[in-house]
Amino acid sequence: MKKFFLHLTIIISFFTISAKAQNKIIVSDLKCEMLTNPEGIDVLQPRLSWKIKASVNDVKQTHYKILASSSLEKLNAGNADLWDSGKVQSDESVNVIYKGKKLKDRQDVYWKVAIFTNKGEVQSKETAHFSIGILTYADWKSTRWIGYEKTSPGDSISQYSRLSARYLRKEIDLKKKVKNAKVYIMGMGLYELYINGNKIGDQVLAPIPTDYTKNVKYNVFDVTSQLQEGKNALGTILGNGRFFTMRQDYKPYKIKTFGYPKMALQLFVEYADGSKDVIRTDDTWKITTDGPILSNNEYDGEEYDARKEMKGWNTINFNDKKWLSAEYVQEPGGFYEGQMSANMKVKREVKPISIKQTPKGTYILDMGQNMVGWLQLKVKGNAGDKITMKFAESLQPDGSLYIANLRDAKTTDIYTLKGEGEEVWEPRFIFHGFRFVEISGFKSKPTLENFVGKVVYDDIATIGTFDSSNPIMNQIFKNAWWGISGNYKGMPIDCPQRNERQPWLGDRTTGAYGESFLFDNQTLYAKWLDDIKNAQTIDGGIPDVAPAFWRYYGDNVTWPGTYITVADMLYQQFGGKKVVEKQYPSMKKWMDYMEENYLVDDIMTKDKYGDWCVPPESLELIRSKDPSRLTDGELISSAFYYQLLNIMKKFAVIANSQNDIKHYDELASRIKKAFNAKYFNASKNNYANNTVTANLLPLTFGMVPEELQQKVFENLVHEVEVTKNGHVSTGVIGTQFLMRTLTNFGRGDLAFKLASNKTYPSWGYMVENGATTIWELWNGNTADPAMNSQNHVMLLGDLLIWYYENMAGIKSNPETPGFKQIIMKPDFNAGLTYVNASYESIYGTIKSDWKKDKKALVWNITIPANASALVYLPTTNVSAITVNKQKLTQFSTSIKTDNNTVVILPSGSYVLSVK
Description:
Residues 176-347 form the Bacterial alpha-L-rhamnosidase N-terminal domain. This is alpha-L-rhamnosidase. This protein is α+β, with helices and mostly antiparallel strands. It has five domains: 1-132, Immunoglobulin-like, CATH 2.60.40; 137-341, Jelly Rolls (Sandwich); 346-458, Sandwich (Jelly Rolls); 464-807, Glycosyltransferase (Alpha/alpha barrel); 821-914, Maltose phosphorylase, domain 3 (Sandwich), CATH 2.60.420.10. A hairpin with a 4-residue loop joins strand 40 and strand 41. Helix 4 (522-535) packs parallel to helix 6, helix 7 (633-654) packs parallel to helix 9 (692-701) and helix 9 (692-701) packs antiparallel against helix 10. It is globular and about 85 Å long. Mean pLDDT is 93; it is low at 1-34.
């Protein structure tokens, strides 16, 4: 019996849908935890996608038929009043553009799809849903922003800013039975929304951060089930977030501030009789700052006094006579947009592993893992008792917290008890990066059961797994997962613990690509590209940090160039053609800006950071002082700009900008000529001062004349293998291409040595010295730890890409972006004896599980339905290969031999064996 499973998606969101095949109904499990049935999207022609899962091989979609209706009842009745696509001949199952009737503000759409395959028809039984948001600024015109633009006792407008939370409430009377209700909320900087005492949604730290002078995100919730006929109470708590910034009245030339917390809200209600009502924020709402949240500051922590709790404040009949009337306040200034990427959530819990008393009577709690989030506290005591929790990543030799690397971040939560039995508390509007917590204030010795760590990051799915025969590589992979997840905060930040936590572009130039194998980060990075675009200056400049919470407009290539490389990642990994089309004009503007201002004699003269964080010659140094280790900045910027020109040529094709293609081609040719004339040393066959990065970049980017490539590569290998004794010698820039280039030029064994090393400098050195995330510095345990963040991801470079594409053999064919065709070409001889990896692509699950010994290689492969794979087997002896116990020659006719045997396999599961 042939069985099919069907997933439906809206934009890039997965939905579980029943499927019908040969009179049998099969419901599939939700595999990717993305945006489910999204509310309030801000596009009128959304892209629809679905997945096909089959238990038989070689399944290809031949046609589809989409039905979309304005109500579930109409869809179930077969009335596709919005769109009946008809039977469309196409194998597209990803990013199919809605082409039905023009959609309107706040419109609901219910849809399903029938697909036709070479194995038969599959009908979706259940439905998917999405709704359109509020698309025009004018539709918010009757809704006022409200807040309280003053400080209260205990607040402080200073370097160490303190501001109490704002509590707002309003009672409403719904005189009819409610049929449908949706609330649209913009709560700056962070909000929690309640109806009749119940929190709406399970998101935390919402909404995601933006430059609020450029754009403001609103969230939408279906609250039909929370409302009742008659009286209802609406309540919100407003925290500070990035809006009321962590440092006030301090370095105003650098740190951008936005004002006091504020809110705009619309509640749309449709009654059973068809009539409608709208409840908006106005000055009839009541507000107080005299609640239990005394301060909330992302750098410094949250202070909560449970004695000040207001029981029932967000329910009906609460006495709010002492509350103030909300004030009308100035709007933030940015355009209002539906939030198209996930909010943060508490994604998992961590239980501490030990608690020890210190000589001064406090306790040190060890979570066993450097994590990001907060601590839930359970405590009994008297009213007025205070529990203080200070967070840090590591300990000093005497067992006390090491806090110098936190700079001026206080990272302290304070809870004051109300004295009513067991009290359970956790903060609402902050997060910490920590492994250790110093606890004080307990009247008796606390136990491990008093604490639970809450891990917080964007609500996106983990879609990649990797396991191998090398334990060090496996631990590095785990460390990378913890580091990446912890630094997803509605934008990718550099670190989660000290007084920085900024979205530096240079940390993700290639890192975003590697991250995409672990996390379904497409909506996160699509949003971040908007942040970068919004931060662009009128003349074209792009900052090093975006959103530009810190004003770092210094101009260089390698950091702002991330704008282009991340767009390329989204196109390559997720088929994000629309992203490229959207961002292309701004990317072109920046490329032109850099050319006009900094290209001199076809050399790009502007570099700011060099090959940042090159391993220094001494374990005690933060930065190398040895000129032989440092790569010429203009070499880096020129090579990088050349590579960006090649990406922009590809983008110009997508954007149908023919004139740009010619310009990029001609400019790249000129730069390549000037680059080789200036930096290539013909007598030694190397570039500049022969650093690994100096040779690596032109090799990787195709700037080295073909006849000289092998000689340049030999110099590179000598530097890695002999001069640096088989260790990493590249910084942030070079490490982005190191592992793949070594492997692509035939030295996967040397890349494996770098990946599996345990001595300095290496990723394994971090593991050997107790790291459970990735350090900011290669020698972060010895080189003035005050400089070192122990949870950075920039030094990962292309390591994770290498794990998947070169060790597991899971790579998207550039000619068919989004894994429509997979290139499966592991380096079986690099040094591993087995790899077991999986990746949940936009077409479905890809698996590569291989194991070898002296006698044979056995390779288990899974290729998702409606996709195919180009599979490379390490032999030219075709007769030595079997597929599912059949001779390869009997199984397939699409066989080519070169240094490998190459075969095209359709979707399905296969066991390949090579004797």
